[in-house]
Write a structure and sequence with these properties.
The complex is a heterodimer. Chain A has a single domain, classed as P-loop containing nucleotide triphosphate hydrolases (Rossmann fold). Chain A contains seven helices and ten strands. Chain A is α/β, with parallel strands linked by helices. In chain A, strands 6-7-8-3-9-10 form a six-stranded mixed beta sheet, with helices on both faces. In chain A, strands 2-1-4-5 form a four-stranded antiparallel beta sheet, covered by helices on one side. In chain A, a hairpin with a 2-residue loop joins strand 1 and strand 2. The termini of chain A are far apart. In chain A, helix 3 packs across helix 4 and helix 4 crosses helix 5. Chain B has two domains: 100 residues, no CATH class; 76 residues, no CATH class. Chain B starts with 16 loop residues before the first helix and ends in a 6-residue tail after the last helix. Classes of the chains: A alpha/beta, B mainly alpha. Chains A and B meet through helix 2 and helix 3 of A and helix 7 and helix 8 of B.
Chain lengths: 241, 201
């Protein structure tokens, strides 16, 4: 893959609204690490932040740039810069057959159809799934669907890959296999999660709370505070769902 | 009738989509011009033989795909039985059965992509009117992708109904959640399309 140094993700005075509710209320960040974890409880705004970082939602104000490209406006540049793996593969798969699914993003990046198909087949082969091309996406197992979504994104070789709690509900060996695939990914990984264990080995961890940045630092510093607070609240968890 | 491409390889898989569609058109017209009930056996046995070329397992899958047709055939038989016009009934039924079976055969042995590519070629002149054939092809793909998802969602909802209701058959109450979840799916798919560059032209 072409990524050399880590990418630079710049978030300037970002505010996002879902209907009337302000979900992200002013976040400023400059991210230049290869492995970034975003921690937060349900409803903290971490998924919205992920969507804004992938350019999927238009911010109410402020902006996100990756290596200088405004990813909400310049979608063509964004395709090479950032990919996002959704929580539920069912929400990500657009096409009825595997090859079409992998090829789609490559065509959108401007590769002519035969070249896109060649790259898509190569990507499938790289993960030992060379025979999947003609298969129906509906007939894949849950783990296979997750893998297909990951292959479709990795085929596009984005500089930044955002993972929105992607592997919840998978069995342990399947999740481990998928995590191994991700570990070898040379670009920047941004992992959204509520589980600190997943990002314990990362370089930098952000803790998002009530739409703002609560803490930011190496995991050894942020995770203990996060865990302490989550455990303390656990006694009265239903008070604030 | 949405029977998808068969995984069982047949000699027809190798025939180009255009040729198969053209043959389907010619054979359908020929079938419709048959006027004697006895002659209807010709296209029916012909179609059966074509299915058998793909092997017994393939033929059985083909027969299963025809299942939605039986009520219509039964209706024809009852109506024409009552009006003492069974000859005509057999003629109509035979036409229906053989043409739908042939069309299914084309669907079962043609990759969806080839079919859509063919459609795009046929629709290409519409570009003059401002219609973008690529979008139509994209929409067809979406329908085929999401139909099984929607059916599955319906099954899930009736299952969760059953888990907490005394009556086993789900009521009309699941219609609204089904619609809402379809709209929700549409939002998610729109997001996925945007994440990878938007709808192609």
């Amino acid at each position: 893959m072409r990524t050399s140094g880590p990418s630079s993700i710049a978030i300037d005075a970002l505010r996002c609204r879902l209907g009337e509710r302000e979900v992200i209320c002013g976040i400023d960040l400059l991210l230049q690490d290869r492995r970034i974890g975003i921690l937060g409880r349900n409803g903290s705004g971490k998924s919205t932040l992920a969507r804004a970082m992938a350019g999927l939602i238009d911010p109410a104000s402020g902006r996100v740039t990756i290596d200088g490209a405004d990813i909400a406006r310049d979608r063509r540049a964004a395709l090479a810069k950032v990919g996002i793996l959704f929580q539920n593969p069912e929400h990500q798969i657009i096409f009825p057959t595997v090859l079409e699914e992998v090829r789609f993003g490559l065509e959108q990046m401007g590769h002519p159809k035969p070249e896109a198909a060649r790259r898509a087949r190569a990507a499938l082969k790289r993960f030992g799934r060379g025979d999947w091309g003609g298969r129906s996406t509906a007939a894949l197992s849950q783990g296979q669907k997750h893998l297909l979504c990951l292959i479709s994104l990795l085929a596009m070789e984005p500089a930044v890959l955002i993972l929105d709690e992607p592997f919840s509900g998978l069995d342990i060996p399947t999740e481990r296999a998928l995590r191994r695939v991700l570990a070898s990914y040379p670009g920047t990984l941004v992992q959204i999660t509520h589980d600190p264990q997943v990002v314990a080995g990362y370089e930098r961890v952000l803790w998002i709370e009530a739409g703002g940045l609560r803490a930011d630092g190496p995991p050894g510093q942020v995770i203990p505070d996060y865990l302490a607070e989550m455990t303390a609240e656990g006694a009265d968890a239903f008070a604030d769902l | 009738m949405l029977s998808l491409t068969s995984e069982i390889r047949t000699p027809f898989h190798a025939v180009p989509a255009g040729a198969k569609l053209a043959a389907l058109a010619v054979l359908s017209v020929a079938t419709f011009s048959i006027s004697a009930p006895a002659l209807m056996l010709l296209p029916l046995t012909g179609t059966a033989l074509l299915y058998l070329c793909g092997g017994l397992r393939f033929a059985r899958a083909g027969l299963r795909a025809l299942r939605p047709l039986w009520p219509f055939l039964a209706l024809l038989a009852i109506w024409h039985g009552l009006s003492r016009d069974l000859g005509n009934g057999a003629l109509l039924g035979g036409r229906l059965l053989s043409t739908v079976a042939l069309a299914n055969l084309v669907t079962m042995t043609t990759r969806l992509e080839d079919m859509i590519a063919m459609m795009s070629r046929i629709l290409a002149p519409l570009a003059w009117l401002g219609v973008r054939p690529g979008r139509i092809a994209f929409a067809i793909g979406l329908v085929l992708r999401l139909t099984p998802v929607l059916l599955d969602r319906g099954r899930q909802l009736s299952m969760s109904w059953r888990a907490r209701a005394r009556r086993r058959r789900p009521g009309w109450q699941i219609v609204l959640p089904l619609c809402l979840s379809a709209l929700d799916d549409a939002d998610h798919i729109a997001e996925a399309v945007r994440a990878r560059g938007g709808i192609p032209d």
